[in-house]
Amino acid sequence: MNTEKVTARRLTAEEVSELGLQDGIFVSAEMDGLSLECYAPASLTEPGKNFEGGSFTARTIFGQEIRVLPDNAEERGIWVADKAGEEIEVLQNAGVLLNLALFVPNGNRESLESLYSAARDAFGAGIVQRWSEEVVAVPDVKVDLFEEPARGRKNASSQNRDRRALDIYPTRVRFMEPSDGWRFIVEPHKEVVDETPTI
């Protein structure tokens, strides 16, 4: 396990309530319910002043969400880098996991194997792995993707819509998520014609 010694001090709940999203903190390193004897770099999921009851939620750089009661002596608390503090062990980044959706124009099995081989050549045969693979033919059609309130008024003007993306292939919609309280509307693509007079 790759760790680094960092000088830090433990914060009180009052101090945590003054932190923002951009402030770097350290919380207990947990991986899928497995508690590790060290800390992980993290940030609050929302500004500290928005939490109530002394309970805070932080998200580590490894994607784990941790709920912490800083003033609870039995918990490991929330720490911040401070030269006047004490040494703690901080779990380091081992690499980046990429989840890729690749679109290969007129793709076939040979072209996919070429992509895979090139990635293995670049990063090493033991590094690049295919976890799952789905080969889907992509129709030659484009759509307009709108986002509108989930409980929108009937007969509402289309001008009220929040246009999230333009001129996309339908298969990409599967990899997008609407905003909270909004839903996607997919329509056949309409070319935008600029009729502005020119001189």
Q: How is this structure best described in words?
A:
The chain is mostly beta strands and 199 residues long. It has 2 helices and 10 strands. The protein has helices at residues 13-16, 109-123, and strands at residues 3-10, 25-31, 34-44, 56-60, 65-68, 79-81, 86-91, 143-149, 162-168, 182-188. A 4-stranded antiparallel beta sheet has the order 2-3-4-5, with no helix packed on it. Strands 6-1-7 form a 3-stranded antiparallel beta sheet, with no helix packed on it. A hairpin with a 2-residue loop joins strand 2 and strand 3 (34-44). The radius of gyration is 24 Å and the shape is extended. The protein starts with a strand and ends in an 11-residue tail after the last strand.
Topology overview:
Elements: E1 3-10, H1 13-16, E2 25-31, E3 34-44, E4 56-60, E5 65-68, E6 79-81, E7 86-91, H2 109-123, E8 143-149, E9 162-168, E10 182-188
Antiparallel strand pairs: 1-6, 1-7, 2-3, 3-4, 4-5, 8-9, 8-10
Properties at a glance:
extended; 10 strands; mainly beta; 199 residues; 2 helices
Fraction of residues in H or I helices: under 10%
What percentage of the residues does DSSP assign to strands (E)?
25-35%
One letter per element, helices H and strands E, the order comes to EHEEEEEEHEEE
**Mean pLDDT rating:** 82
Radius of gyration: 24 Å
Strand order of the largest sheet: 2-3-4-5
Number of helices: 2
Global outline: extended
Largest sheet, described in full? 4 strands, antiparallel
| Parts with pLDDT < 50 across at least 5 consecutive residues | none
Structural class: mainly beta
Strand segment count: 10
Distance between the termini: 67 Å
